[in-house]
Amino acid sequence: MTLDRSNEPEEREQRLAEIILSCLRASEAGRALEPDAVIARHPEFAVEIRDFFADQDVAAPLRGLAAAGVSGRLDLRG
To answer: In percent, how much of the chain has pLDDT > 70?
Structure first.
């Protein structure tokens, strides 16, 4: 008897998307999330969760500018 695992990658991606969406909703609601706590609940996604939080740290200043209504082009070349 062979198990059909053809949907496993899609199911894994779907689960990760649900976790990330949950993190985004919590952030939008003003709830601070600790990456280690999220990873403890979902250790199979540790790398992806760390990457997500690292990306959020990089993007935070840009979101602040957008919220303040800063417009125009930003020179990110350093």
So the answer is: 65
